[in-house]
Amino acid sequence: MPLHADEVPRDATLVRSLLKEQCPQWADLPLSAGGAGTDNTLYRLGAGLLVRLPRTAATGRSVQKEHTWLPRLAPRLPRPVPEPVHAGTPTDAFPLPWSLYRWIDGEEAGPDTVGDWAAFGTDLAEFVRDLRRTDLMGATRTGGLRWYRGGGLRACDRWISGCFDDCRAGTGDADALDADAPDDGAPGSGPLDFDALERLWRGALALPGSRAPHGWLHSDLKPSNLLVRDGGLHAVVDFGCLSVGLPDAEHAAVWDLPPRAREAYWNAVDLDDATWARARAWAVAVGVSGIAHYGETLPAFVAECRRRLRAVLAADGR
């Protein structure tokens, strides 16, 4: 089932035809499914390449952004990031830009891959800090690098309030199926307390906005975009949401990580309480909007959102 009303069809046959037309030197390499997210579908090409096709015209605009900025950012960062190899052009069969990258070996961050969560949180903080400190090199939010997570919370209030309403109504939320199930503390079990989550959201809205200068943001540091090798953080991938803006939302993804990683991240970045509260509100916003929007089309992503929100509720302060 398509995730978006304006989604462009794509499959391995299409990928093979694009390669034959635009990259014939690689067109005969083995091709296999490499995963999919809310914005892109991935294909592994041979042993060393990755094809990424956007789902919609809106997400297709990230291709030019990554090909422009990743080569400039990569030398300044402490971990590998994707290396663009080819910027695919639209065709009659696929009317969107697409990308070819070097493959980066690694596994998604998780309990079976990370050896030391405290070290992982510290390393992630180092990456965020170095990315943010990197010179903007003339980049601005108005120069194609605008993303809602780099702005202020208040601009999203009407949208997120609607998402809370949808979640309470059970729209797309698996909680409606297990509302009577006991909450045993396990990730993803039992109903969510959307009233408590909304209080956290509204509490952050009442805080003064960030006065930090604009800087670089990855904007989507969820575990599937953090590759692990030998038990530690190896690379950061998927810069489709790369933006310039305020730092608060960049820290939101730490609620996808265990408490030890979150605590280590907090200590390494040295955030003040107001910034932490706004970051937590962004974690809530991404979670409830994911449940509301993808409930009927992407249950795995909804489960991720539920786990993030459950971690927010379970956390005491930090």
Automatic annotation (TrEMBL):
Coiled coil start-end: none
Domain Aminoglycoside phosphotransferase positions: 35-282
InterPro entries, per the entry: AGP_Transferase, Aminoglycoside_PTrfase, Kinase-like_dom_sf
Highest taxon above the source species: Bacteria
Descriptive protein name: Phosphotransferase
Organism: Streptomyces cremeus
Lineage: Bacteria, Bacillati, Actinomycetota, Actinomycetes, Kitasatosporales
